[in-house]
Amino acid sequence: GDHRAAREPLERRLEQGGEHPDRARHLAMIARGLEEEDLLDAAWGRYEEAIEAQADLEVAHEGLVRVHERTGRTDAALEALERWADASNDESARATAAFRAAEHALALDDAERALLHLETATEADPILTPAWLLRCELAADRGSDRETRQLCEAALESVEPDALAAPIALRAARLAEVAGDMETARRHYAQAAAWDPRNVEAALCESRLARMAGDWQDADDVLHRFVTNHPDHESPTLAHVHLERGRLLAGPLEDVGGAVAAYESALARQPELGVARTALARQLQLEGSRWREALHQHRRILTGSPTAPETHPALVIRAQCRQ
């Protein structure tokens, strides 16, 4: 409601004394009115009175934090958030206050304090993905790979499977790969790619591990599925996915036509991707009926880089002699 208009009547009511069961709530409303008039120090005092009257009054804690933040008192805002987290009887509100306290602690370069608050936040609300994400990031900076991996695994058992949680799955995959646990790494790369359909790195890494295991068709299926599920099929970020598909199709899967199509798709999204153009030119040479297209690609490469070793002028000469 209109806190500014309500402030004076509420203050008169408090001055009357006597039994006042809504005293804490009314003090918080007065504080909000003062805050809206930019009387921030006065608002601070009233919020403190409200908390003294009712220790778990969420609106008073929230208002106190807001006043300190508006006045740039980061230390005081952090302390207010800690008091809020300690006093709250609502686990969701407690988790949110603890998470915000962690962010303030990081602003003060106090990572240890931040980690303690993040632990509180994830215990109070196990599906609070932002808290898990930040906790895993700090653990990676300060702890061992084994500890960070265990933390990421715990997070993945709790969080909702969505794009916000995908970086946790990606970190868990990298750590599993470093530890030599390729099966777990592949599973987490697959999670990251499924949860975030734009996560090119996850798809490329999952495909790479499948290729390393000799699962050529699986490696290609991973990339094909990722391209199919991507929300923007024309995104330049897909160029390297098509490039890797081309390499698989040109190599172990022995699909020349499919490789040509994949290289062309890569170039359609990143025309400056020289490695794709070179691979396309070589692949076109293998199709006797398309040697003119191969010549065209070689000429484009030479135009952009006359000394390109992968397209020696002799290749062009031989192609021209076939005309």
Polypeptide structure, described:
The chain is an all-alpha fold. The termini are far apart. It has helices at residues 3-15, 23-36, 40-53, 58-70, 74-87, 91-107, 111-124, 129-142, 145-158, 166-178, 182-195, 200-212, 216-229, 239-250, 256-269, 274-286, 291-304, 313-321.
Oligomer: single chain
Radius of gyration: 30 Å
Distance between the termini: 83 Å
Query: Judging from the principal axes of the Cα atoms, what is the shape?
Result: elongated
**H and E order:** HHHHHHHHHHHHHHHHHH
Indicate the low-confidence ranges by residue numbers: none
Helix proportion of residues, in percent? Answer: over 70%
Give the helix/strand class. Answer: mainly alpha
Roughly what fraction of the amino acids lie in strands? under 5%
Main beta sheet: none
List the SSEs and their pairings.
Blueprint lengths: L2 H13 L7 H14 L3 H14 L4 H13 L3 H14 L3 H17 L3 H14 L4 H14 L2 H14 L7 H13 L3 H14 L4 H13 L3 H14 L9 H12 L5 H14 L4 H13 L4 H14 L8 H9 L2
Helix pairs in contact: 1-2, 2-3, 2-4, 3-4, 4-5, 5-6, 6-7, 7-8, 8-9, 9-10, 10-11, 11-12, 12-13, 13-14, 14-15, 15-16, 16-17, 17-18
Summarize the structure.
The chain contains 18 helices and no strands. With 323 residues, the chain is mostly helical. The longest helix is centred in the N-terminal third of the chain and has 17 residues, at 91-107.
Label this structure with key terms:
323 residues, mainly alpha, 0% strand, elongated
